[in-house]
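Structure tokens please, single chain.
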Amino acid sequence: MLFYDEHSGYMDEDDVDNVYTVLRKAGLTRKKPLAKLDVLIHSYGGDPNAGYRMAQVIHDFADEVVVLVPDHATSAGTLTSLCAHEIRLGAGAYLGPIDITLAGGPSEVELAGIEYFKRFVADCREDAVEYREREGLNPVTEIDSALLGKMVDQLTAIKIGSLYRNSELTGHYAKRLIVDYMFAQLPNRRVLADEIASSLLKGLPAHDFVLDFHMCKETRLPVVEMEEPESDAAKALTALLGQLSAKGVVCRDLGIRRGDRYKAPFVRYFPARSKKVRK
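Here you go.
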């Protein structure tokens, strides 16, 4: 189970060691991995490096992984989910884009926002060229370079470069997880990985876009809707953990990080109950 506090949870590199330690203390070993492991994820995301590494650690201890999403697993949470052979969504649950956001209060910027600005620039240039041609003027215009220059002035070239670098990194991670695990048995797994990663990175309108069950199916992710009893039980569990986190019982307070207060995730391993055979 990977439960992150609604308001102060953030996937971080420290969580990778936390997940590994919990699985080892439960007696699991990489030499004899579990045949199957269900992983409940409740997170709005965080560091893509952490999301990818946690997915790999989970698969070190299990041959087959099923991800359970009672409510939401977005951004780096979606990235971690790409190691699953099946993703089970609760009623109204959703995943999200894996595009990059650089935090920083009022200066927070999304890669998706830059892509939309580039489209805006292209439209402005097209409109300007059409107008000048209609008025019999020289069609050459530098409006696109001027607008892009303003964008760089506002965001700085370093921040834009960092966004695109992290986007390439996240896309590589997504493809690796899809090829190695999600569709490992399919001959067209690399084609599927390219299509799905591209869609999750660049094919959605905004970083907070909601990918519900129907849109996940269209994206070709292996999603299944939970039956009501399973969904209700999973949602009740995350609701209880949310209450316990608010009271300070779970999700240890990590203090101020990146200008905001953060809490550690609630990470636990619950062994499967053995089924008693009735005589």
